[in-house]
């Protein structure tokens, strides 16, 4: 059914096009596919449940188009005091965006390659500016698009099952969904390190890195949800107090030190360089087992993506979320026009040979002029928030 909704729509005037989209969505609902996301009201809480467990709750355009208007409606509703978002299936909160559909669309110039990113980033902004307290229960895999659905909200509750990563440089993309906003704002150079290497954080480390706001044991989440729904006055302070009460009782891995603790000094110095070439040079000069390991990882990534990502984070560090998302939309469209995204998806997700042939193949071959072009405004096609 997804393929049916995502097939190219005829070229029509904007109004007619909207009618066609609505017809497609109606068709979508009648076949039960709207169950990919469940939207319900319990007490004073609006609850969003990502419901594609077989796809690890990966986010597609249809889900975005259901979630966005619902958040906006709950924001205006005086009887909705908070919004909770979670995933089904026990394995993932949301493992990312529907990359395969975007790849297929991008190859044939289908509008989905524009619409998906435009609507996804608009949703990320709605979460980042939401006037109602927004609680994301990031139980399980939380990557890419799943990070965008959670990290910009007020509260992010990690569990021992949380697995966080922004692995986009491995598929010729960049850590989008507002990555240029939140990653450079993490302590030291952790965000740069996570963005360039795709390093995975697990469980309590997601909290210690500053990505989650609370840590609660996975089996306690149903109780937490009931207590959140039962709050009579769901102010941010009341919600924070409730989350804190669960957080302090969670004992799993309480004594373990942060996985990157022993490397933080190196991360802060090695990843503070102004260019990718300089980061690589510093890693080579350092020569420690940690540095060599990072070098091996970086050598597998798309050189274009690495350069794009470093600049994205350096610029995003002093920009508003809206300006970051506008910048990232430009970068997403540059990736759709380029080579490495399609090659990365082929190597990692389709053929799974894990041997992408990047073009250009070396950092030195990615010119500043090429990177500059990726950041250029798109005129009438720019994302407006």
From TrEMBL:
Pfam families: ECH_2
Localisation: Mitochondrion
Protein keywords: Branched-chain amino acid catabolism, Hydrolase, Mitochondrion
Domain (Enoyl-CoA hydratase/isomerase): residue spans on this chain: 46-375
EC number, as in UniProt: 3.1.2.4
A biological-process GO annotation: L-valine catabolic process
Pathway: Amino-acid degradation; L-valine degradation
GO CC, alphabetical: mitochondrion
PANTHER family in alphabetical order: 3-HYDROXYISOBUTYRYL-COA HYDROLASE, MITOCHONDRIAL, 3-HYDROXYISOBUTYRYL-COA HYDROLASE-RELATED
Function per UniProt: Hydrolyzes 3-hydroxyisobutyryl-CoA (HIBYL-CoA), a saline catabolite. Has high activity toward isobutyryl-CoA. Could be an isobutyryl-CoA dehydrogenase that functions in valine catabolism. Also hydrolyzes 3-hydroxypropanoyl-CoA.
Family label: Belongs to the enoyl-CoA hydratase/isomerase family.
Protein name, UniProt field: 3-hydroxyisobutyryl-CoA hydrolase
Organism in which the protein naturally occurs: Anas platyrhynchos platyrhynchos (Northern mallard)
Gene (name only): HIBCH
């Amino acid at each position: 059914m997804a393929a049916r909704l995502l097939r190219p729509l005829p070229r029509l005037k904007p109004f007619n096009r909207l009618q066609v989209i609505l017809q497609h969505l109606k068709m979508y609902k009648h076949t039960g596919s709207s169950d990919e996301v469940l939207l319900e009201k319990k007490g004073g809480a609006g609850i969003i449940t990502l419901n594609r467990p077989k796809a690890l709750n990966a986010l597609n355009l249809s889900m975005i188009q259901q979630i966005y208007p619902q958040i906006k409606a709950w924001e205006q509703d005086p009887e909705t005091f908070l919004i909770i978002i979670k995933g089904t299936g026990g394995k993932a909160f949301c493992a990312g965006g529907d990359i395969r559909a975007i790849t297929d669309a991008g190859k044939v110039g289908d509008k989905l390659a524009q619409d998906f990113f435009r609507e996804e980033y608009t949703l990320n902004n709605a979460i980042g500016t939401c006037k109602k307290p927004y609680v994301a229960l990031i139980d399980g895999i939380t990557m890419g698009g799943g990070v965008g659905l959670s990290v910009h909200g007020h509260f992010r509750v990690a569990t021992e099952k949380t697995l966080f990563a922004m692995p986009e440089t491995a598929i010729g993309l960049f850590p989008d969904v507002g990555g240029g906003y939140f990653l450079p704002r993490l302590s030291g150079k952790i965000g740069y390190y996570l963005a360039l290497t795709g390093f995975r954080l697990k469980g309590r480390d997601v909290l210690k890195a500053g990505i989650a706001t609370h840590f609660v044991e996975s089996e306690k989440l149903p109780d937490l949800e009931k207590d959140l729904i039962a709050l009579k006055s769901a102010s941010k302070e009341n919600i924070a107090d409730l989350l804190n009460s669960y957080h302090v009782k969670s004992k799993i891995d309480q004594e373990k030190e942060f996985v990157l603790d022993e490397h933080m000094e190196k991360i802060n110095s090695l990843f503070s360089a102004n260019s990718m070439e300089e980061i690589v040079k510093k890693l080579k000069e350092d020569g420690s087992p940690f540095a060599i390991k990072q070098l091996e990882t970086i050598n597998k990534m798309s050189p274009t993506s690495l350069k794009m990502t470093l600049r994205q984070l350096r610029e995003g560090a002093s920009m508003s979320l809206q300006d970051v998302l506008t910048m990232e939309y430009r970068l997403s469209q540059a990736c759709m026009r380029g080579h490495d995204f399609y090659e990365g998806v082929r190597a990692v997700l389709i053929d799974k040979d894990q041997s992408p042939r990047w073009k250009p193949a070396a950092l030195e071959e990615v010119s500043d002029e090429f990177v500059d072009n990726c950041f250029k405004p798109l005129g009438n096609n720019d994302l407006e928030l």
